[in-house]
Amino acid sequence: MLQLPKLLIIWTFLLSCFTVPVIGQIQIEGTINDNFGNPVSYATITISGNNKGTVSDINGRFKISLSKPDTLHVFYLGLKPRSFFADTSGIYTIQLAEKSFKLDEVVVFPGINPADTIMQKVIARRSEHDPMNLPSFKYTAYNKFYIALNRDTLEYFSSRGKLGGSAGNLVKMAKKSNLFVSEAISEKYYKAPGKMRENVLTTNISGFRNPAFAVLGSQLHSLSCYDDFFNIGNIKYVNPVSPNAEKKYFFLIKDTLTAARGHNIYLITFRPKAGTSFSAMYGMIYVDGYDYAVRKLVAQPTTQSSQIGITVRQEYDKLEGKYWFPTRLQSRINFTDKVIDSLPPFPIMIGYASTSIMNPRVGVKIPKSILRRQFEFSYAPDVTITNDSLLQQYRSDSLTPQDLYTFKLMDTLQREIPFFRWMNDLPLLLATGELPLGYFTLNLKESIGFNLQERWRYGLSLMTSYKVLNWIRIGGKFIRSHEEADWRYAARAHLNPLRNGVLRLKYQYQDETSEKGAYAFYNPYRLGMYNLRSFVLPALNYVQGHEAALELEYPRYVNLRAKGYMEQYSLSHTAIDTLFGNFNRTAVRFDLRYAPGEKLGNLGKYRIREGAGGPVFNLSYERGLAVKNDDVKYERFLGRFSYNLPTRFAGTFRIMGNAGMVTENIPLELAFNGRGSGKLHFYEPGVFQSMPVYSYFHTRFVNGFMQHYLPIHSHQKNIMFSLTTQLGVLYGDSRDSRISKISSQAKRGYYEAGLMGGLMNPEWGQIILGAFYNFGEYAQNDELKNIYLVIGLTTALDW
Prior knowledge:
By secondary structure, the protein is mostly beta strands. The protein has 12 helices and 42 strands. Helix 4 runs antiparallel to helix 5 (166-176). The longest helix is centred in the N-terminal third of the chain and has 21 residues, at 4-24.
């Protein structure tokens, strides 16, 4: 039997083993906020005197344990660091004040910058950690997006007496309701190389039933942080995790934490180096010191509007002990305005978009039926019917009282106020250029226009919407010509027999005018309100007759069209070719368009095109049939190649080439005009700015355009300049001697060079000014007449 002292010693030892940690550990938790009360994601909290610490989560929350009372240091880029002493367990709210962030701040190292060494290791292993290099993966995502009055900011100024009496009402509204809330559950599939598909299963959208609103937040930035470019708001920025980034970005180690496995986590800030002028971001990267992989990323553009600013955040976890994979994506949009004259502008509204990635699985087999789909993202047939059980299953955070009230309020407004019902169809306007008007859509481009022959044209061009019938649209137009006092009209029917809209049948009967010698390439996704050249066309055809087309979007990246014409062409009073006279055109045409890598979104019956992603090829063959005595018999071949090549530091290079040939003797109306823009002083891509309209017609031609677009950013002044150089070349002739007599031929080459400069201030947009110069065999003797001045809004357009 043990003696009593020994029992006391053993009991005291055992008691100390279990009680010392409980008594000695100080449990600290809390939230990091900015001076407006908004949560600060990915702030570092470190213990004084060592590398132990933690990082706040995406909602600004943190937890840390102390063995004894100690000082904690809090850091976040762009906010003033703060230290506080923690001696008791509890919940802390830490507020970080804003500071001026100077992009031209210089830090000098006596030798090699250690942050460069770390980032070079990250870049060296980026192919290993890039999720797009995995053989395949799939996951389910919960997407939430909301816009709200910035309650914390309003309360901050209101409590200090800085706002007027109306502030109280705004604060009450902000506490009660958001302005907009949407939820969506989607499944994403990927198979290397580059085959990505996302299918939205269900949505819950305040006030709207159009599923396009549900993906607003999830499309704001890139999924992977390892590409050469990082997309924010569909604009490409040079990724700091890309080859040789240390030559353009300045990296700085701001903190070092010790992870649970004992290795380091490096907090590295980045910003463009002084004197650089590329499309840059600034922010923070948390680097895992064992794998040299990105754990967290915070970034925002260096050049953006002070009224609308966006910050993106990404969080990565290690799957199965070997794959680094994104698990949380977030974007914050600040809508800043100067509400009170005595106060600086502050964020009056905020938008939050978050994507929680759940159940990611790597190396899974992706069904071929999914990979064969044409579209980058699509929707389930019943996507607008909210599946509450599915949302509840994947919802990462419960809906707040403000969210619930927003759904109730906005649904009521949508039922009772016509404006909100019209807003539900806004994606149709963005995707097609058609203005939704209840059960009809208005084609703005056709309803009003101008050319030098008819002068102003005005009227109505309407089609029924899919609210009437989901498989067919019917309509037409009545347009009055001001100069000729005549009516132009058309009757149309568009049939969509398949739910996803990949097969379309179109019919039209028209009595209209058209450009002489025009040629066009099939592109069902081309947007744009107007063809600017139509404003300066001095002579047009009168065309009356039937058109029918069968369009198919299949297989992947391919568009096919078969089209038939039975039309009568009549001479106008401004006719150029009077020898051939009136004629009939009975013809069939076949079009092929191939755009590998093109990203498309399927919004039911209409599409959203996100970008080419690679070269685009067009081929066309048209044959005139001698059905009637006065039909023109011919064969017409057309081809086009275009490619946009963005580079990280040298801007974007664009090339486009067109070629065509027509056999037999044909009227001038069916030849190829030179695509001169004549008196048009507005820049338009793919035309010869210095060439007079209708000055060149050919039966065989080849032309090419080469352009270099170079953005030049002034990071300190928040201004972007651009420099665009362009070269256009045209060769052509005519085997029809009659056309050669009434029109010029570019047998020896028509050459045109252009130089354009642009200025873009995020507060008011961009404007470009430039000059084009015609040189070579067909230049005029008076040099001043070879120079043509243009103005425009942008040259940063996909060809």
